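request received
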Amino acid sequence: MPMAAQASNLNEELGQVEYVFSDKTGTLTCNIMEFKKFSAGYQAYGTGEKPKKKQEENVNFYDKNLEYDLLNNQRPNHEALVRVVLFLAACHTIVIDEKKGTYTSSSPDELALVNAAKQFGYEFQGRDPDDAMVILNRNNGRTMKYQLLNICEFTSTRKRMSCIFRDP
Amino acid sequence: MCKGADTVISERLSHQSRESDMFQKTEEIVNKYAEEGLRTLYLAEKILDEQVYQQWNQKAQQAKLSMQNREEMVAQVDELIETELELIGSTAIEDRLQDEVADTIQFMKAAGIKVWVLTGDKIETAMNIGLSAGLLDQ
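response:
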């Protein structure tokens, strides 16, 4: 659409501008988080290459070693990897939108983490009435429940959040 | 399980975890992520004694009910349990720049407008974003 100038005083005011303030996340950036890489134990995963398989939302991840290490318990990094993926599936404040069946969270970063765990086969399925996190392991079809005891919430000063679970 | 900014988690690791090869390795990996402009997190865990938890939980419940400075009180109590952690891994998330951000900033600079960056990001992340946004020139 062509623009028409109603008055020219704006130009003069613009000429006076010396400082411009802008925030970054969501303003300069798209605020669309994509899970790309991670590390478990000594091992870094995620090559940065274009993924070949269909990705979960907010995930853009490729590494052929991931599946080997995750599914084969003989691999040296298997245990450390499972620990991290379970962490991603369990430690968060995401709730499931009952109607749509989608994850909702105030933090787009958390959505990326939980969707990554889902893509790796550890699917967060919501909290049961006793406040346990229900996680379905699609690799073996088993459902796991982690009783959530407490959450130390994220704030911008704390720059961290914690979940406390009962050891199953 | 505790996740957060690398500096914040590092301060709360056990001596053993902090001094481990695994810590050094993770630091290396995460610095690389940050240089790529990715948003990074450290993941850490510890096993709590039932009794320790119960005692802490009483304090936590009290803090949550406090009428004044609740956020501060809760943060203080949370601090007590988020100690002696063991680092288990890290994550890297990308949040891409919107189209034409770099061009826009170039225009502003060409117009003689001073551009400042204030950020809580890791220095490596900030540098990288600065470069890709055309804010910094090497």
